[in-house]
Amino acid sequence: xxxxxNCAAYENGRRVTDLDINDPEQMKPxxxxxxxxxxHEPTQDVLVKLQGYFGLHDLAVEDAYRxxxxxxxxxxxxxxxxxxxxxxMVDGALNVGEVDIFVGPNYVLSVRKNSxxxxxxxxxxxxxxxxxxxxxxxxxxxxxxxAVVDRYFPIIDTLESDLEAIExxxxxxxxxxxxxNIEALYQLKSKVTVLKHAVAPLFxxxxxxxxxxxxxxxxxxxxxFRDVSDHLARVNSSIxxxxxxxxxxxxxxxxxxxxxxxxxxxxLAAWAGIxxxxxxxxxxxxxxxxxxxxxxxxxxxxxxxxxxxxxxxIMYWRFRKSGWL
Length: 325
What we know:
This protein is an alpha+beta fold.
């Protein structure tokens, strides 16, 4: 895929022309014009070139090139630097990417890494609403953030469905299910933790975009960023609820394993008690003494076997009645 996905200039909320990032004259900021550039896996040379055009801070450019940053929001003069994590479900595993956004009064530069989901639909949406896009680079930042946050919801739905499926198996008596449940719950907890690390810092950072002292580029779009923060609050709350449910499910599953082990122990103890009776009678009558009662009785053996059988039968009945067998 090309490094430059899209590069265009907008005036009064409408796209006026496509730009070439290799032409310094075209890239000069102009009053009333917003340049929106979308990059995917850019090289360091491309970022350095754009840094020269827009005066981007060295630390922000370094973060955008190296990626693997924690979600955050930083202000460098008139430039706003936002880092967000993208989360995608790929073959049952979570793929975590990153979007770094530079926002100035006359430009928006988005850098996407390790993510297959682009923002073409976001650009199309903004271009279809010129009355909103007319608000400038702040609205573009909102649209990009809103798209990233909205993509968290399908992930939440998938993880909740997986959790419900595991919960339905917790009380199953099939062999090996308990261990499989623990493994599945632990894997699910790891996925939820990954999502938590993407959402929680962004939720904290988004609160700086509305109310009180906000960056200048966001001054006219505070209500939109409040909406993004509300969505993040919902996602964050769902994640916390899921984590608590997973912890409870793991505790219940371990309790079921303990109960099952206790049931097995009780059965073994009951049978051991029954065989102990047999062993006791056999041990007594098997002693090697010459003068023992009933040694020469013709009914001695049948009587001994009958007594043993009756005693074992009574014990079996008692254990069965008490639920041990």
